[in-house]
């Protein structure tokens, strides 16, 4: 019965355009895959209202001190871990604010852990170890739409009182039925039958980009389209911080570096002090009263 359910999934069906895949040249394969990928963005476009709701839910959870927790297995799990890992350097959040859980643990990031995704209890244990609470948002990723690890995580999240979001590439999926919100961009049969790391994985990555970026922007992690909470953890990001201050204020590189030194390398403080013509202390105070939103900090009247 389970095998029958899986073969009915769109992601498991054979793609008629790639039936001769094993006879194609390298260029023909590349062209076919590129052509198939052109349908991913339109598939995601159809579910943008649901994505927007997920952004709102994530913003609300993070704003209340909760966490954004991704759960998944295989490629889906790895995509969640990747998105979580990129949030601290990009948005300046602590590593535990956005979390990625993959069936089988860290070893599954590079090596297949057989059977891990088939154990619904395993995800409950992983979520328990995180201290899951009702303020958190749990986002389950399952391209096939039926991963037991994700279903088990949703069952436990419901008991705790968490909101849940399912991301799948099959319509009316099992994970979608179990979640409070279902996002299902249907990308169709893969070029390589059942290999959901291809179009389905691309769609999942696009949706994750929107959820994490949209929620972080809503929390004040951007000014205009600049990542003003970037963490200067390497030379590239240090240079980016200087460039951001220059772009935001129109100042010289020298002035940007000086402002960053005065603000203890806090890009937001440097931007506000330069644009408002105020001290480091007042810039920091304005940002605190505006919950870190640069635009709102700039609109406040000077207290000096």
From TrEMBL:
Residues 58-221 form the SIS domain. The keyword Oxidoreductase does not apply. Keywords: Carbohydrate metabolism, Lyase. Its EC number is 4.2.1.126. Pfam families: GKRP-like_C (PF20741), GKRP_SIS_N (PF22645). NCBIfam families: N-acetylmuramic acid 6-phosphate etherase, PRK05441.1, PRK12570.1. Homodimer. This is N-acetylmuramic acid 6-phosphate etherase.
